[in-house]
Amino acid sequence: MAPVPSFPINVGHIDDVQELRKTKPTQIPQRFVRDMSERPKLAAIVPSPNDIPIIDLSKLVGSDRDEQERHIEQLKIACEEWGFFQVVNHGIHPSVTENIEKVAKDFFMLPLEEKQKYPMAPGTVQGYGQAFVFSENQKLDWCNMFALGVEPPCIRNQKLWPSKPANFGETLEIYSREIRQLCKNILRYISMSLDLKGDVFEEMFGVAVQAARMNYYPPCSRPDLVLGLSPHSDGSAITVLQQGKGSSVGLQILQDGKWVPVQPIPNALVINIGDTIEVLTNGRYKSVEHRAVTHKERDRLSIVTFYAPSYEVEIGPMAELVDKNNPCRYRRYNHGDYSKHYVTNKLQGKRTLEFAKIEPKTST
Ligand SMILES: COC(=O)C(/C=C/C1=C(C)CCCC1(C)C)=C/O[C@H]1C=C(C)C(=O)O1
Ligand SMILES: O=C(O)CCC(=O)C(=O)O
Ligand SMILES: [Fe+2]
Questions:
Q1: Domain-located, residue 13
Q2: Where is the Fe2OG dioxygenase domain (predicted)?
């Protein structure tokens, strides 16, 4: 079963942002208005001269060894320096990515009463609503989420799989199967980029946990005051993020203290390193803080897949990546315990990963 909190919580009333938008309020409700330090400085966002790296997956397959090595090197740089990259020529047919966008959008456009048949209970992460809200005082994101555990079957909450649109379940199954294979392939290339055996993660992860989250960000009359999604790193091993066609530019990653936008590329998928790979690589490949911002006139859809080890797997830095020059930075723990820790804390940058950190020894 998916981990849930074991403490009582009172989240107060959470406005549905699509419904709020319909009423065209003259003022944004205070619960959405961020403190000054958190507000996005939208005017300051100029297209970055160095966008996140683009990796051509067809060049990593290995039919030409020299070409493969060169591209593995590019992947290594992307993981070391960015923690985010976009993959093109990933082999997933455009009809698969188009179909998931269509059913996700159709779901979000249903009347509220229909969507509320699949509620995300306070403190849980599956269903329709806002995840990671634990108190009445917490600021809310300008976002509606619909999240479902997909694999293994024991994490599925079948009651939350919607009957409308009619082809939702079948479409998510097809999409998830393709994305699962993509995650396996990418993890193989990541292990090669670390000079490790190609199947090291596949063997370690057991039957990997896979969850899908669809995020819908309606336009917001004051995008300068709100956040679409609070800054966070993902708890997964890797995450695959599909930015909806025609959506506003909204994903930003924190690089050298600046928020850098991720420009959508048609048919590309965004991949990011999660906390679990940061721990396994002893910090060589780091998870990167990211957030989403909103747009005054345009909406945005993203479809996100979290791919992580099975809950019973023990995680800790891999022996090959720890030595005198790279002392062990993280403790060993059970991934199920980390998942529970992750989903029972609000999104706060990279704070969740404190769970695993070993304080560096200071010399006296
Ligand atoms: C809203 O969900 C998340 O952000 C999230 C949770 C994913 C999950 C589900 C929707 C169903 C049950 C499994 C799981 C907890 C993975 C983020 O997932 C990250 C956090 C951890 C830890 C992880 O493995 O993926
Ligand atoms: O919508 C986005 O681009 C960001 C989504 C995200 O980071 C997440 O769901 O974890
Ligand atoms: Fe994320």
A1: no
A2: 208-309
Does ligand 2 come within 6 angstroms of the Cβ of 290? Answer: yes
Sites in the chain below the pLDDT cut of 50: none
Measured by CA distance, the residue closest to atom 4 of ligand 1 is: 125
Q: Where in the sequence is the domain holding 277, given as residue range(s)? A: 31-356
3-state secondary structure the chain: CCCCCCCCCCCCCCCCHHHHHHCCCCCCCHHHCCCHHHCCCHHHCCCCCCCCCEEEHHHCCCCCHHHHHHHHHHHHHHHHHCCEEEEECCCCCHHHHHHHHHHHHHHHCCCHHHHCCCECCCCCCCEEECCCCCCCCCCCCCCEEEEEEEECHHHCCHHHCCCCCCCHHHHHHHHHHHHHHHHHHHHHHHHHHCCCCCCHHHHHHCCCEEEEEEEEECCCCCCCCCCCEEEECCCCCEEEEEECCCCCCCEEEEECCEEEECCCCCCCEEEEECHHHHHHCCCCCCCCCEEECCCCCCCEEEEEEEEECCCCCEECCCHHHCCCCCCCCECCEEHHHHHHHHHCCCCCECHHHHHHECCCCCCC
- What residues does the ion ligand 3 have nearby, CB within 5 Å? 234
Q: Is residue 362 assigned to a domain?
A: no
CB of 234 closer than 6 angstroms to any ligand 1 atom: yes
Q: What is the CATH number of the domain that holds 39?
A: 2.60.120.330
Residue 16 lies in a domain: no
27: number of Cβ within 10 Å:
9
pLDDT of residue 1: 52
pLDDT at 211: 98
**pLDDT digits over 317-337, tens only?**
999 999 999 999 999 999 999
pLDDT at 2: 53
Residue 172 alpha carbon to ligand 3 centre in Å:
19
Is the residue at 2 inside a domain? Answer: no
Mutate which of 339, 348, 353 for ligand 1 pocket (most atoms within 8 A of beta carbon): 339
Which residue's CA lies nearest to atom 23 of ligand 1? 236
